[in-house]
Amino acid sequence: MSLQNFASTKDLAIGPASSGYESLAYDFEWNGKGNSPSSDSDANGVPNLLEYALGGNPLVPDPGILPRVFLKNQGPQRRLAISFLRACAQVVYTVEGSSKLLKWVPIDYEPVSVGQTQTVEDPTRRVCLCPSASSD
User: Fold this and answer.
1) DSSP string spanning 70-102?
2) What pTM was estimated for this model as a whole?
């Protein structure tokens, strides 16, 4: 799935900066580029907070960090799934699904530990990852 296709499926819900993101923002030399969570400092179409949530560098384009959407065979059924790296404890990872791309609802799943790859599947809907800053 291309970055354009992923981005066009659902607007990302990006909340205020968390202490983890603020630390990241402090550590980088931004050279006049926007360092807010919703900025796209490397102009690759991925907001800084999403790059942070997926373990990327907001100043270096890296399409390899983006979530992977795929069909998963489970017996005779094929299920739509999304897989992504859960890179940060300070980020709330919400996976949403929609059957017609009009109304999006959260999909329940059991989170993996930070540093592990999370896979979420849904047999009936399209899926999208929507990170936001933790309120903790």
Assistant:
1) EEEEETTEEEEEEEEE---TTEEEEEEEESSSS
2) 0.71
